[in-house]
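Need a sequence for this fold. Nothing fancy.
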């Protein structure tokens, strides 16, 4: 067992408290990873705010990079000292979803190792709990990453990159010549934008409320920008035609409601950002049916770690995938509430806690 510092949530909506918790030794197939850096994702904030419920006390954080410190029995291909991404994707490898290449929808993910505070259990949320100096996770949640990528940039691969990029490449399967709209030019949206560029999309239209973020979107590959609140159909027709794909990377009900307005016949809108539980959407089923339009969810970009991370790392090594440019600001663990506040306020692309 090991004592580590962690940012613990004991009350929804309240600041996190830095406490000492005890990690169990790695069990069968599990790995102890010492965290180098962990990014602040809006999903963490939604959990902290109670938007998806869950038990407390809890440790959030799921977008991390670190080094293997100890391995349990049955661990393959990993040894102490290895540098790895830490993700929330815990998969059994044997259920129909895993066997079909969809580990993000594993039907039997199992329960991860849970730290303790005194005699009480502290939930390692999302089978991760990476707002901490170290974690114990299943080997399926890890992917090797080279030493030459700075920790603050590498950790974003664990969620922000694969979620945005995977929605475009894996879920939507964007083809050369397609027209894409990305609503929200934050960390996930910028990765959807650069994925559309890499996929050969003819037009990549970024939509956001911030001129600063729209400028960043152009740096990542957007061909056109539109201020949020504009008439989506009119904006697209001004550019030439309606979109084949719309990626909604913000979890806001009104934005989701208007996603189909940007679409051409037979186009599909993808829900990448997740709203609070209980959010109710509204759309015109007659129009959607008549024009053959679709509305589809995508979780973690339908990523397969062993398939997708190596080629993303190769793209980065070639200078074609932007990672370092995603990092806005870094914070020590004892300032994690400042990092959360900055992210909540929409400041920056990705704010990262570096340990």
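Here you go.
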């Amino acid at each position: 067992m090991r004592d580590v510092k962690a940012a613990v949530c004991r009350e929804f909506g309240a600041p996190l408290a830095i406490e000492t918790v005890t990690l169990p030794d790695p069990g069968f197939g599990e790995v102890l990873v010492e965290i180098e850096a962990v990014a602040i994702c809006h999903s963490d904030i939604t959990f902290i705010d109670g938007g998806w419920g869950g038990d407390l006390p809890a440790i959030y954080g799921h977008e991390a990079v670190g080094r293997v410190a100890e391995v349990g029995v049955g661990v393959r291909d990993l040894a102490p000292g290895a540098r790895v991404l830490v993700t929330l994707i815990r998969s059994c490898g044997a259920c129909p979803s895993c066997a079909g290449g969809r580990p993000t929808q594993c039907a039997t993910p199992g329960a991860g190792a849970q730290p303790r505070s005194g005699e009480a259990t502290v939930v390692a949320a999302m089978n991760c709990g990476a707002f901490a100096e170290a974690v114990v996770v299943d080997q399926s949640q890890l992917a090797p990453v080279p030493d030459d990528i700075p920790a603050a940039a590498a950790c974003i691969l664990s969620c922000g990159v694969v979620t945005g990029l995977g929605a475009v490449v894996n879920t939507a399967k964007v083809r050369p010549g397609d027209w894409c709209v990305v609503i929200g030019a934050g960390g996930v949206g910028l990765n959807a934008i650069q994925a559309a560029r890499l996929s050969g999309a003819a037009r990549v239209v970024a939509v956001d409320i911030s001129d600063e973020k729209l400028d960043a979107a152009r740096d990542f590959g957007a061909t056109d920008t539109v201020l949020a609140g504009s008439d989506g159909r009119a904006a697209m027709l001004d550019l030439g035609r309606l979109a084949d794909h719309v990626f909604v990377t913000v979890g806001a009900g009104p934005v989701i409601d208007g996603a189909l307005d940007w679409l051409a016949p037979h186009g599909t809108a993808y829900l990448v950002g997740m709203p609070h539980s209980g959010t109710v959407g509204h759309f015109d089923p007659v129009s959607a049916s008549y024009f053959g339009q679709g509305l589809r969810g995508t979780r973690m970009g339908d990523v397969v770690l062993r398939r997708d991370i190596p080629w993303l790392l190769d793209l980065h090594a070639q200078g074609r995938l932007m990672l370092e440019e995603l990092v806005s600001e870094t914070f020590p663990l004892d300032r994690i509430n400042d990092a959360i506040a900055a992210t909540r306020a929409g400041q920056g692309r990705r704010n990262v806690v570096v340990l």
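For context: The longest strand covers residues 30-39.
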